[in-house]
Design brief:
Blueprint: E1 7-9, E2 25-29, E3 35-41, E4 47-54, H1 62-76, E5 86-91, E6 100-105, E7 108-113, H2 122-132, E8 137-142, H3 144-152, E9 161-165, E10 176-180, E11 183-187, H4 202-211, E12 216-220, H5 226-233, E13 238-243, H6 246-258, H7 263-267, E14 270-274, H8 277-283, E15 288-293, H9 305-321, E16 323-333, H10 340-353, E17 358-364, E18 381-387
Parallel strand pairs: 7-8, 12-13, 12-15, 13-14, 15-16
Antiparallel strand pairs: 1-4, 2-3, 3-4, 5-6, 6-7, 8-9, 10-11, 16-18, 17-18
Helix pairs in contact: 4-5, 9-10
């Protein structure tokens, strides 16, 4: 805690003066009975306390929460032009809001909770957001581990619930539409993955756009086609979205349709393939000039780390086989249990084993609206390789 780590695990708590309830403030003292920190208590989580403040004692009141929100918003001030209306406003522990994220999709805010400690405080959080962030609606998303408990509360709180709307009670039938770098995308904020879109890949999508001109692109694990839309605007000859989810591929088609006013997108052939990405890439004989491999997390727990590294090696080996001469590989990972160093070395080693000549263009990690303030928060990494043979 003294070095800034935001979690206290249950096994680290030596004693407590009484049983606590989810959402209570837990004040932590060291062996000498000196104040260490204060955080949100969760009696049912392995992360027993999520730290709000460490150092000298402070009063955690309405003014304190107002200041904490203003700090998070100040970090984003000036980051995005008017042509981008989708981005993260609060990034959990790294912004001092442990277990809570807040995303903006145009006039819609999506609040996602990862710990039951926030449930008793939800009304206060919503009031704070409404007072500081004008919006048409606030949608509540809940991680799976707290949905049952949330539904048992009075009143029950449901994943995908509109907890605020203006006018009251109005829930659009269609997905929310927002802009990113002048492109339009839909976000299923009520049922979609994460909060409805992968906002953390914005910078990588923009970089892929600069590399796409004149290239045939394969976008594996494509989800709703974000990389492909950018590549098409960048002048790709064709783009292929590959995903096992029919729902995701239909969303990709709609995202292309949203941007047909742009000549480059209107002219770019867009193919969708529903299949297991590993199997399709292995069996296909097709060649591409640009291959993007951005799978979901392959290591959801530490015990899966070694298996994930082997899977990344296999996936990128298959991806390199699909590359035409002078092709480019964009390899990504969102597995927090595989470090950036381990992932980058795995991709480099796989490229070397291919026997093809290549150069490394760059590596990327977290965008500024998704800061990583401690080791466990460092999940996102991407490496760019250009093959010359």
């Amino acid at each position: 805690m003294r070095s800034g780590h935001p979690w206290v695990f249950s096994a680290s708590v030596q004693e407590s003066n009484r049983l606590g309830q989810a959402g209570e403030l837990a004040v932590i003292y060291d062996r000498k009975n000196q104040f260490l920190a204060v955080g949100l208590f969760d009696p049912d989580s392995p992360i027993r306390v999520r730290i709000l403040h460490a150092g000298k004692p402070q009063t955690i009141d309405d003014a304190w929460w107002q200041a904490r929100l203003e700090q998070a918003l100040a970090k984003r001030a000036g980051l995005f032009a008017a042509e981008t209306t989708g981005y993260r406003l609060i990034h959990g522990e790294s912004d001092g809001w442990p277990g809570l994220v807040l995303d903006r999709y145009d006039a819609t805010l999506v609040l996602k909770l990862y710990t039951a400690a926030w449930l008793p405080r939800l009304d206060a959080v919503l009031a704070l957001l409404r007072a500081n962030l004008p919006c048409e609606r606030i949608v509540l998303r809940l991680s799976r581990n707290i949905q049952s408990e949330s539904e048992r509360r009075t009143p029950p709180r449901l994943d995908g619930e509109n907890v605020f709307s203006n006018p009251a009670g109005v829930k659009p039938a269609a997905p929310v539409i927002f802009s990113e770098s002048g492109l339009r995308f839909e976000a299923d904020v009520w049922r979609g993955q994460k909060t409805g879109f992968f906002l953390d890949q914005r910078e990588n999508r923009g970089l892929v756009e600069t590399l796409a001109r004149g290239r045939r692109m394969l976008n594996a694990f494509s989800f709703s086609g974000g990389f492909s839309v950018y590549a098409a605007r960048g002048g790709a000859v064709s783009v292929t979205d590959l995903d096992i989810s029919a729902h995701a591929l239909e969303s990709a088609k709609r995202n292309f349709a949203l941007n047909q006013n742009l000549p480059a997108l209107a002219a770019c052939p867009h193919e969708t393939i529903r299949a297991d990405a590993f199997e399709w890439i292995e069996k296909s004989a097709a060649k591409f000039d640009l291959v993007v491999l951005d799978p979901p997390s392959l290591a959801k727990r530490a015990t899966e780390r070694e298996g994930a590294i082997r899977a990344y090696e296999r996936l990128n080996s298959l991806g390199i086989q699909r590359l035409a001469r002078e092709g480019m590989l964009v390899a990504g990972s969102c597995s927090a249990h595989v470090s950036a160093l381990e992932f980058f070395e795995t991709v480099r080693r796989t490229a070397q084993k291919s026997g093809r000549q290549f150069s490394e263009l760059r590596t990327m990690q977290h965008p500024p609206d998704h800061p990583a303030a401690f080791k466990e928060a460092e999940y996102l990494k991407t490496i760019y390789l250009r093959f010359t043979a």
